[in-house]
Design a protein that fits this description.
elongated, six-stranded mixed β-sheet, alpha/beta, eight-stranded mixed β-sheet, 960 residues, Rossmann fold, 43% helix, 15% strand, ANF_lig-bd_rcpt, GABAb_receptor_plant_PBP1
């Protein structure tokens, strides 16, 4: 009985303790509060099913590790049915009926855009781990939180890849949705900074038929660009690559770059599609390897295959990792905020539908949003941190699609650019170099880097437009060849183009198409021809087309292959051919001053010398001659006359120094005029004289800009017309100058090297170049080839073949040598000839007049030459006698030494004209002093007659 009571008592205490324990546990359970969260996904899509498995695992894992949390997320899933309206309906249902405080999802950017506006209105955070469109931003919709990367972050790594391989043209292929289009502005901006063009944008609707996809791919095949950036959903991308393979676009000449969305979804794509995409490049946000990531992949694979046994997926994508971290971030934010008693208090904005009129604005929303944005933890994707309402990624993987998945070949980071390994302390090579990447297998199993463009594969030759002109055929000449029934195009520019095409590393089929009318004349100006390329009537223009700014707005030019600039050609005046050039070195005033000083100096010397110097005496005429002779003889320093006076010597010294300076200056200035300053262009009076230009040239517009009146401008076609117009001059219906480009003027100078000269200023242009359509990739290779041709011997041979060795003249014609011609001095020779002939005529006249009696004594039958010879001999004999006789008298008029008796008295009458031939006045004047002295001695001797000296007659006879 006692035992029974004891047993009953123990049972009572056990039951009491059990109730107390169980009651306490129940109360502990009741202390946790629930937090309603909506989940909007495309439940029928593969991505939706993969994300749902990740969210379920995340919720379970979080509360296993955070069992002490007082809040519990309660998920309410809805199917968006892969439609914007379906997603909107699901969100409205969650808000009205469940009153969720936050919504995870939706998957697409188009769905998220509507839900973000709704969440912003009722202050309910919308958290998406897969909506990547840049149009969704926290600035516009603060309650939209993106736990993934913005698509705009891909623009820089994609551009870095393109820059590393030197591709200059890219075509984006994207789907016609918010997701597809919103990345384009950021991609274009990044590419343009890298000088990369986007010549075309390939837009494909999400529900496009196979025929639409094929039509778009055919269009891409006819273009030059072979680098494509693919940005679309996996379903559309699978169909795109299937058709690309059918058209042969997955070979070695194509480059396919996949954006982050496709690269992350490779694991969810069919293996057969992956096999078609071999060789493509891709980028995706870098996810660090960790134990937690490995464990999650195992659990996810088990969970997903349990829920979807018919789908073969081996591992989750980055979006599943982001969905997992999103749940963790929301759960921690909810725990921080806690549960509130009131959910929606304020009346909703009138902007929302009347269906929400009874719903207020969430009171928990602002606190919850702030808690989510402040979340910091280490998740599966690495460090989880939201900046400006979205997840930031500091690194991207660069993949090469080989086998069943992408093979890592490098990384891109904002700090170090492209690198082979992620851990980079300091860049040692170019940040955009392809050498920083691993080995790449390109489409078609090629290891050769595609050049990124080709000649269009439409089977047609390039239509090369060439100008048709009447003159300057050395540059371009179009001739109809009746033997071949075709048009032959030749010329300097054509040969340069052919030489450039020959050295390209690939074949370029082309044909020349003259820009002409049916009658063979030119169809327009050079601007019209260039515009035909813009209109796509020609694929290029080859000829003497000048690179100028307004033309470059419509076409792309290659590098120039000729000299640049527009200059002026004018006739020249050769001053060496002036008859009076010898007068130019000194001014007229200096000439008169110098002449006056010559006369004045001669007069001063005569005044100082004529009293004491016999050389300055004589007849008045002799005095005047001495004045002029002495001063002018100082020019050659030939002073034969002695200067006796010291005053005169001083004057002569000073004057010789002055003459030295004047003659030296004269010689130097004359030498400069005859050698250096040989040519001078004619002066050009703007708008008063006519100038010429070439037909069809842009020079006409330049002349108008320079202020030339169009009425004074004349157009010409050929060098011959230019020469004729310049020769006639503006006064005779021609022109006084020609404006044209330097290559044309060089040709004119080569033909007419002695007639014209090129004068400045030179107006800047870029020379001749070949024109191609805007963005043409062929133009870049042509430019590189032009450099090789112009810097080699080939260009020299082409130039000599069309222009000869004298390709240009300098400003001074080559025909003018440094030797001085008779033209420069014929004036001096005329003066000398006139002076000489005048002196000869005066002398001859006086000679024949003074000896006219001898002319009458000569036989009339004697020839004229013989008469002149005879008269000359008689004149010489008489002159000799007149000079010698007086000297004999003075020297021999002495007494005989053998007879002391003076000789018989001379007969004074015998000392007449017969005994003493009269002497010249000049002789007497010059020797008057000595003659008087001798005459005095002779008189003394004659007075001693009879002292044994010889008689005068005998002396005279002896002298004779």
């Amino acid at each position: 009985m006692a035992i029974k009571k004891t047993t009953q008592i123990l049972s009572f205490f056990f039951l009491l303790s059990s109730k107390i324990f169980l009651g306490g546990f129940t109360m502990a359970e009741n202390t946790t509060s629930t937090f309603d969260v909506g989940v909007v996904l495309d439940m029928d899509s593969l991505a939706g099913k993969m994300a749902l498995s990740s969210i379920s695992i995340a919720l379970s894992d979080f509360y296993v590790t955070h069992s002490f949390y007082k809040t519990r997320l309660v998920l309410h899933t809805r199917d968006s049915k892969q439609d914007v309206i379906g997603a909107a309906s699901a969100a409205i249902d969650l808000i009205q009926n469940v009153e969720v405080q936050a919504i995870i999802g939706p998957q697409t950017s188009a769905q998220a855009k509507f839900m973000a506006d709704l969440g912003n209105t009722i202050q309910v955070p919308i958290i998406s781990f897969s909506a990547t469109s840049p149009s969704l931003s926290s600035a516009r919709t603060p309650y939209f939180v993106r736990t993934t990367q913005n698509d705009s972050s891909q623009a820089k790594p994609i551009t870095a890849i393109i820059q590393a391989f030197g591709w200059k043209s890219v075509v984006p292929i994207y789907e016609d949705t918010e997701y597809g289009k919103d990345i384009l502005p950021y991609l274009i901006e990044a590419l343009q900074k890298n000088d990369t063009r986007i010549p075309y944008r390939s837009v494909i609707p999400p529900l496009a038929s196979d025929d639409q996809i094929l039509k778009e791919l055919y269009k891409l095949m006819t273009m030059q660009t072979r680098v494509f950036v693919v940005h679309m959903a996996t379903s559309l991308a699978s169909r795109l690559f299937l058709k690309a393979e059918e058209l042969g676009m997955m070979n070695e000449e194509y480059v396919w770059i996949l954006t982050d969305g496709l690269s992350n979804a490779l694991s969810s794509m069919d293996s057969s599609v992956i096999g078609l995409m071999q060789g493509a490049l891709g980028i995706r946000a870098y996810v660090p390897i960790s134990k937690e990531l490995s464990d999650f992949r195992v659990k996810w694979s088990r969970k997903f295959h349990q829920d979807n046994p018919k789908i073969e997926i081996t591992k989750p994508s980055v979006f599943e990792l982001q969905a997992y971290d999103t749940v963790f971030a929301l759960a921690m934010a909810v725990e921080e905020v806690g549960r509130t008693d009131s959910h929606f208090l304020k009346p909703i904005s009138s902007k929302i539908s009347d269906d929400f009129a009874t719903i207020g604005v969430s009171q928990t929303g602002p606190k919850l949003l702030q808690a989510i944005l402040n979340s910091r933890f280490k998740g599966l994707i690495g460090d989880f941190a939201l900046i400006d309402g979205q997840l930031q990624s500091s690194a991207f993987q660069i993949l090469n699609l080989i086998g069943d998945a992408g093979r890592e070949i490098g990384f891109w980071t904002p700090t170090f650019g492209i690198s082979r390994k992620l851990q980079v302390t300091s860049p040692s090579r170019n940040l955009t170099s392809k050498a920083n990447l691993g080995t790449i297998i390109w489409p078609g199993d090629s290891t050769i880097v595609p050049k990124g463009w080709v000649i269009p594969t439409n089977g047609k030759k390039l239509r090369i437009g060439v100008p048709v002109k009447d003159g300057f055929s050395e540059f371009v000449k179009v001739v109809w060849d009746p033997s071949t029934n075709s048009t032959a195009v030749t010329g300097y520019c054509i040969d340069v183009f052919k030489a450039v095409i020959e050295i390209l590393p690939y074949a370029v089929p082309y044909e020349f198409v003259p820009f002409q009318n049916a009658n063979g004349t030119s169809a327009g100006t050079y601007n019209d021809l260039i515009y035909q390329v813009y209109l796509q009537n020609y694929d290029a223009v080859v000829g003497d087309t000048t690179i100028i700014a307004n033309r470059s707005m419509y076409v792309d030019f290659t590098l120039p292959f000729t000299e640049s600039g527009v200059s002026m050609l004018v006739p020249v005046i050769d001053k060496r051919k002036s008859a009076w050039i010898f007068l130019k070195p000194l001014s007229m005033g200096l000439w008169f001053t110098t002449g006056a000083f010559f006369i004045f100096t001669g007069f001063v010397i005569w005044v100082l010398e004529h009293r004491i110097n016999d050389d300055f005496r004589g007849k008045p005429a002799n005095h005047l001659g001495m004045i002029l002779w002495f001063s002018f003889s100082t020019l050659v320093f030939a002073l034969k006359e002695k200067v006796v006076s010291n005053y005169a010597r001083f004057v002569v010294i000073i004057w010789v120094f002055v003459v030295l300076i004047i003659t030296s200056s004269y010689t130097a200035n004359l030498t400069s005029m005859l050698t250096v300053q040989r040519l001078q262009p004619k002066a050009l009076s703007k708008n008063h004289e006519c100038v010429g230009y070439q037909k069809g040239s842009f020079v006409l517009g330049l002349l108008k800009q320079l202020g030339y009146d169009e009425s004074f401008l004349k157009v010409y076609n050929s060098p011959e017309e230019f020469d004729g117009a310049l020769s006639n001059g503006s006064q005779k219906g021609g022109v006084c100058a020609v404006f044209d480009e330097v290559p044309y003027l060089d040709l004119l100078l080569a033909r007419y090297c002695g007639k014209y000269t090129m004068v400045g200023p030179t107006y800047k242009t870029d020379g001749f170049g070949f024109a191609f359509p805007r963005g043409s990739l062929l133009a870049r290779d042509i430019s590189r080839a032009i450099l090789n041709v112009t810097q080699g011997d080939r260009m020299t041979r082409i130039t000599q073949a069309w222009f000869g060795r004298q390709t240009s003249c300098s400003d001074f014609p080559k025909s003018s040598s440094n030797s001085l011609s008779l033209d420069s001095f014929w004036g001096l020779f005329v003066i000398a000839m006139v002076s000489t002939v005048s002196a000869l005529l005066i002398f001859s006249t006086r000679f024949f007049y003074n000896h006219r009696y001898l002319w009458r004594q000569i036989n009339p039958e004697t020839s004229l030459w013989q008469k002149i010879v005879i008269m000359g001999r008689q004149f010489d004999k008489k002159e000799t006698e007149s000079r010698i006789t007086p000297m004999v008298v003075s020297s021999n008029f002495k007494a005989s030494p053998n007879n002391n008796t003076p000789a018989s008295s001379p007969n004074i009458s015998n000392l007449t004209e017969g005994a003493f031939t009269p002497m010249d006045d000049e002789y007497i004047s010059a020797h008057s002093g000595s003659l008087i002295h001798e005459m005095s001695n002779s008189v003394l001797e004659l007075s001693t007659i009879g002292s044994g000296r010889p008689s005068t007659s005998s002396i005279i006879n002896e002298g004779a």
